[in-house]
Batch of 2 targets.
Target 1
Amino acid sequence: MGFFEKLGFKKKQEKLEDGLEKSRDGLLGKLGKAIAGKDKVDDEVLDDLEEVLITSDVGVKTTLEIIKRIEERVARDKYLNTSELQKILREEIIALLKENDHDKPADFDAQFTHKPHVVMVVGVNGVGKTTTIGKLAWHYQGAGKNVLLGAADTFRAAAVNQLKIWSERANVPIVQQGQGADPAAVAFDTVSSAKAKGSDIVLVDTAGRLHNKVSLMNELTKIKRVMGKVVDGAPHEVILVLDASTGQNAMQQAKAFTQAVDITGLALTKLDGTAKGGIVIGISSELSVPVKYIGVGEQADDLQVFDRISFVNALFDKDK
Amino acid sequence: MFDDLSSKLQSTFKSLSGQSKITELNIAEAVREIRRALLDADVNYEVAKEFTRKVKDQALESKVLTSVSPGQQFTKIVFDELTYILGEKSEEIRFAAVPPTVILIAGLQGSGKTTFAGKLAKLLKSKGRNPVLAAADVYRPAAIEQLKTLAGQINVPVYSIEEQNALRTAKEALQFARKNAHDVLIVDTAGRLHVDEHMMKEVSEIKKAISPNEILFVVDSMTGQDAVNTAREFDKTIDFDGVVLTKLDGDTRGGAALSIRNVVEKPIKFMSTGEKLDAISAFHPDRMAQRILGMGDVVSLVEKAQQEYDEDQAKKLEKKIKSDSFDLDDFYTQIQQIKKMGSLTELAGMIPGVSQKLKDVEISDDALKPIEAMISSMTLEERQNPNIINAGRKRRISRGSGTSVREVNDLLKQFQQMKKMMKTMTKMSRMGRAAEGLKSLYQPGRK
Ligand SMILES: Nc1nc2c(ncn2[C@@H]2O[C@H](COP(=O)(O)OP(=O)(O)O)[C@@H](O)[C@H]2O)c(=O)[nH]1
Ligand SMILES: Nc1nc2c(ncn2[C@@H]2O[C@H](COP(=O)(O)OP(=O)(O)O)[C@@H](O)[C@H]2O)c(=O)[nH]1
Ligand SMILES: [Mg+2]
Ligand SMILES: [Mg+2]
């Protein structure tokens, strides 16, 4: 454990705030100066904006959409001054990020309308599903909730044990049937057990799968379906975990997982690196799903509730 | 997204036919298309800029467009340049003159290091080596057990210690390899971020302590713009020898490969294409170039087809189609052939253009199972002359194959449609034919 403390993961919040500071004289400032009082944004500035967005993995399509919106606003409100313009750029991007649903609160001490509140976690291989579940369990447990984990990744070598270690770290119970067990049966078992025990929240881990593998996606649909047989409306949330370093393929992932299990929210992991995860802007807007959490490290407390403003500021923070 | 780049360029250049000179002006649009294609494929912003500039210069230098197809000529310039940058074909591991050969595996979290370590051990073992694995990821929960489970599948020993000390694990593993006459040591390490000074220091210390003959940097092929930063930093710290691209069984275009090649002068040595330990192959720059450009992996498909497809049978089949005597029995044989060639999704993805068109058509390998079952439940007479299959026979077939009468009806209808189509297909190009055939086969029944 001592090792992790040395890494100083606690500084993450500060880091995001740092971003806020820097952005004031970064691109936003430049953009503001260049277009203040004009009715057209000059090409050089647009090129800069394009570069920032593309290199943050926002993608060509969404970048063009954002630029179009800025140009329209500038054409309309030409009297804008620098600070107003900065505000607009932020606003336009924030507007693309869907707000969190009220019936699926992100705060760990919020009340759920269902008991148990069942959450299924899905995604491609290695994005951080199990780790995110471990972190969520730790946070919910800390907020006084009764948590139950379900080890429905029965495929990847030692996946069950990995989740088990997390359950010990978070001090929460786990339902498992070992490697190779039928994942749908594990999910069924987990939700049944949560119902019997009176758990507040159930977190079901699933094996990573590439979204273009039809049979594996069908399996996921089935895992989801069986949970609804035990508790009405379960799973109440399906969280797709995306790795911030993933590029445009994340859009395909989101579409395919939506088709298979109708995702309700996103978790964006590994934001403690230099990748910005800009692709979530397009995903959130196109598929109308909110980003709920971000992962900023490998420790239990390295999870934050997603904040649109900090996220957008971090996009324009050159030093992040 | 967009259709494959070559067809885009084709239409871009349509307006150009008749003009015989490439000028800054008339290629501007084509250059834009290329840049967009590269960015959509996750090629880094700067790298894409630089690449399109190079391609533009080359096009301007070549000056004269062949009157036949300027689009094709331009595509070729792009493709050749891309293939060139992606580098030499499948470089091998460098083995030590005096064993053991030490191979160090490093990369970001979740990129596929541990799985690759297992794959490499399996590959080397199959080539007569006697590898041992070192479990130097001492942080990720159950990482050691994961490696042990994988190694257990291939009967390769794993060296690990109780203490949470990666450096010591690696050092002792080397001694263990020497003592036990293992000629290869593969060291699996923890995932680490390139900005994590402490962890980067750890891996460079491991490197210093065990002097690897080969250091491989493992990268997820779905990586976006950040690939350049991570590759650059890892290269600075451990000066790796080669790159491993993982998860290429997905549908990512894999532009990160180009980005990485651009910032570090290191060859891409392996491709990882699945979760199972045999899903590993050598790197082919030309195929990767096609993939990045959205052209599909034609070469692999043709190779696969050549490997598996029985020439005689193909000729017989063609005759049958021409003479309209293609029956359900031939269809059954066809299915077996297709199955031999590998996963359907994999095959379809390799066909140019189809990779995009087929996006929304799910191709399941399971889709073939009921078809096979139904045909198996038919008599030879029924297979040769499906017209005799009346209501009573349909009921029998559906019972025998565990399907419904509706499914039998669907199959018969699809088969008739397919036959009709096959006849018209003879006019089409070979590749196009394969594509249409696959599409018609798997589209129905999944609406
Ligand atoms: N740096 C960092 N690493 C993470 C984060 N989330 C997960 N990881 C690491 O990513 C790797 C894969 O995570 P895991 O939860 O096993 O992924 P899964 O295959 O999707 O379940 C592990 O090494 C994790 O420690 C994060 O937010 N930041
Ligand atoms: N589909 C697919 N999955 C892979 C591939 N390589 C690794 N994986 C999966 O990706 C996840 C992370 O792999 P792992 O080897 O644990 O990564 P590590 O954290 O870098 O050691 C696991 O679920 C693996 O099964 C690949 O080539 N294709
Ligand atoms: Mg997992
Ligand atoms: Mg590992």
Note: The pocket of guanosine-5'-diphosphate (ligand 1) is lined by residues A 123, 125-131, 208, 241, 269-270, 272, 295-298, 302; B 109-110, 140, 191, 193 (CB under 6 Å).
Target 2
Amino acid sequence: MKEIDYLAPSSLGEAYAALQNGKTSAFLAGGTDIIVQLREGRKEVDQLIDVKHIPELVSYAWTDDGGLVIGASVPFAEIYEDDEIVRRLPCVIDCATLVGGIQIQSRACFGGNIGNSGPAADTVPALIALGATLTLGSADGARDLPLEDFFTGPGQNVLGPGELIITVNIPPQPANSGSFFHRFIPRNEMDIAVVNVGARIDLDAGGERIEGARISVGAVAPVPLFVAAAGDALVGETPTEDSFARAADIAAEAATPITDMRGSIAQRVHLTRVLTYRALDRALERAREA
Amino acid sequence: MTTTEKPDYKVIGTRPIRPDGVEKVTGKALYGADIHLPDLVQGAVLRSPHAHARILSIDTSAAEAMPGVLAVVTHSDLPVVADKVLDMGEGASTASDMSKNVLAADKALYRGHAVAGVAATNVHDALTAIEAIKVEYEVLPPVLNVQDAMRDDAPLLDASRHTRTPTGEESENASNVAAHNRFEGGDVEAAFADADIVVEREFDTKMVHQGYIEPHNGTANWNSDGTLTVWTSTQGAFAVRGALAELLQLPVSRIRVIPMEIGGGFGGKIGVYLEPVAALLSRKCGRPVQLTMDRTDVFQATGPTSGGHMRGKIAVKDGKITAAEVSLAFEAGAFPGSPVMAGAMCMLSPYEVENFKVDAYDVVVNKPKVAAYRAPGAPNASFCVEQLIDELARETGADPLQFRLSNSAREGTRMITGVAHPRIGQEETVQAAQASDHYQSPIEGPNRGRGVAGGFWFNAGMQSSVVASVNPDGTVNLIEGSTDIGGTRAALAMQLAETLGIEYDSVRPTVVDTDSVGHNDVTGGSRTAYASGQAVYEAGLDIQQQMVARAAQLWECEAEDVEYADGGLRHTSDSEKTMTFAELAGKQMETGGPLQGRGSVVARSPGAAFGVHVVDVEVDPDTGKVDILRYTIAQDVGTAVHPAYVEGQMQGGVVQGIGWALNEEYYYGEDGRMENASFLDYRMPTSLDLPMIDTIIVEVPNPGHPFGVRGVGEVPIVPPLAAIANAVHDATGHRFTELPISPRRVVEELHNLQ
Ligand SMILES: Cc1cc2nc3c(=O)[nH]c(=O)nc-3n(C[C@H](O)[C@H](O)[C@H](O)COP(=O)(O)OP(=O)(O)OC[C@H]3O[C@@H](n4cnc5c(N)ncnc54)[C@H](O)[C@@H]3O)c2cc1C
């Protein structure tokens, strides 16, 4: 392992400057991906830019209209220890409590999970189901984009060379809405998702009909998938076994997985259907409780 | 459950704290990589990126010229050794194969095969230097399973290898099959023709690793006087000394092996990998050299146990097993020496089977050379036989445990080797499982099922020696040479305390190096508590005798008039004359000087172990996940010296068996690369994947041991594979004949996915 510079900017301005010093960089948030990758020689960079000293990245706040803006470097433990988030956005807790164990959760963050851009990243389908957007910043200014548009391939994303993720923005959720995230792993802990699914269901005021639905599936394509068609197929339907099964079929059709040591193509397509169905079921339960 | 009146032991059967416990839980114990020496330098090993390749040339000049680099070695630095068989205690190998495994000669035979070693002033320089070694390979197609390897047109790992046939001849054509052995008895054809029911199936298992936490390491100092000192984490310091003597062509007297604390072995820390390379590097650079592996190296380049292909056919008539025909082909890895023979000899041993034909094939493939792993060979073979037996029990409508009991081996029953069982506890063990609360409780609910399976392991005896020195305060220092993996310091100290009638706390056991005690075979084969225990007992008797003579001297009487009893001495006819152990210990100077007891044994009656397991599972048919709901293990342990450690061994074997059954496997790409060489993707069970494992200790004393001890550590890994497969069958109606029964396999088979 070669020598690497370590920088710890204390403002966005300093971070942007560091990104323009001509060296190849990676960000160091919790370090639970990047340190492993550097040590194993899977990545090589000249410098690590620590993003845990930039105020915008290490705080979170509710917006006036009920949305939640989470700094990219806020560790998961801080999120799931907040009772209000637990109450208002249980789907965020589903994924935040599931990444690694307590040591990992005390360091790791959404910015790292998203920045690492793994196809199986566990927070991503949950956040896509919730309709999250990212705020990216660079010396040229800031821009917002839907999370599902961020990824371009395994470990790849739209970030420009001088750019970083500032916040993850979860919009206010509709009144009769419920969301759920889960994954399948072969053991009960310590694994990368074979398939993971996030789902949101918005019911009408009477709780009878589905007004909207968002379904996102991970680990079945080069990038996490937002399967709009699966959600759209539920609009106007009643939440029944049949309508859920149809949506699950559409999600499974969208899956284009590979076979590797974590699962086979056939297994992953099958699991996409099973997990989507189950996620919708649990999202519905939450929507009815809402 | 004790089956005979147990002697009134004072120490045996209690649960004292282990002598090595405090050091280990406070992080002070020194493991292999904890050794630091003046001038110590670090090394690195260059490993083959190919599973099968001819090595055309190795150019080390650029690496040698790099800053910080002190020495580079390749196979050519090893002396030429003969084809002499090296018995490592559990698993044998020839010296020349071992030499080629330590550093590849003309061919790299698996990905991760060591090709060169470098010593440098720090590990970073060493790692940079190995990348500068230029190796020219001619890449060859790899052979990755026994069926491919056995084909006539298979690429050969070694063109000069021929099959040793059952008649002891060499096959005409070269082959990847190193040996074919056969056991035959009775009239199999007739028994099958006459049977009520015959079941026949094929089974496949994958290569799996022991998964010990501490990676391999070796530190060597080649002194300028030509002596070699080696520090390593090993199950057998004397086995390492013997192997180094052969590989380096040194007399054993010039080698001292210092065993460090060992972070798990399970059979995998008997062979040598890094030690000879560190020794060669140290000889070249004149400084002590340390080599350590990372987890990927451990998976790719140390011995796991075999996967293989099996075909079994068993017949029943009138509820009795009448015939068995089984063919086993096991992967040996890159060099011959799979545990296929052990598997063949174990799998039918819990039962009485008169007519049998068993074929065993030892097959080389482009994977790491296998090493021992807890009851080597038996779990795979029992995965085949115990599932067939389950099927037969079902088809005859019998309760699966009752069926096993009706067919159980007992004292006098001959195994397929022709050897008759001495007093064994097979029937008692089945009965204990039958009577368990678990087996007596119904299993209810959808997708749930129960399975049972039995298992046998020989247990080993072999050589042990100890010395016990009596201190003036009445305590005893016990010097032993069996490295302590599973609590043997405690188990041996307890047996000495019992023999001498003194307190457990009065015995202080120490594991020493090869210069400091007589020969001890490996801590393996479940032999240590048994065989070293016997040596300890003899050392105790030796002390007793000497104490009797000394008491007679003090009391000016004949030795016959003195008796050693209850931890002290007494005159048989004069009740005034008594002395405690400590009192006499305090009079050593006036009675002839320091008092030492010695014990040396070749233990020959290990007393086989039997286990019967009951497991309940729940299968999620949609995700394929198998949850272990409840697990009970009954096992004959002879005499439980330290019941807590006996239970720990039983539970540990089950845990590894659960991993093997459900998720563990070497997952290979077509290019022969193990794709899951990390603990993330090589899925051993975590604590969250396991229920409490209930243990039932059955004690049918081993007549071949003074305290009735049998080995306990290995047999508990034998039944879980089949027991779980049988439970999953009960839950789903589908028989899984291929391991692991992973979620992937379960959904693919239950839903007919491809
Ligand atoms: C034991 C263990 C268990 C794990 N379990 C899981 C799991 O269950 N599920 C799961 O999804 N992952 C898991 N992971 C992976 C990892 O913990 C997560 O991906 C985590 O969210 C990464 O966050 P981090 O803060 O540690 O990222 P870091 O390692 O600090 O960074 C990861 C990547 O993101 C980039 N990055 C960081 N911050 C920013 C930013 N502000 N803007 C742009 N790019 C940025 C970095 O450049 C780097 O490439 C596990 C890892 C370990 C070691």
Note: Chain A touches chain B through 20 residues (CB under 8 Å).
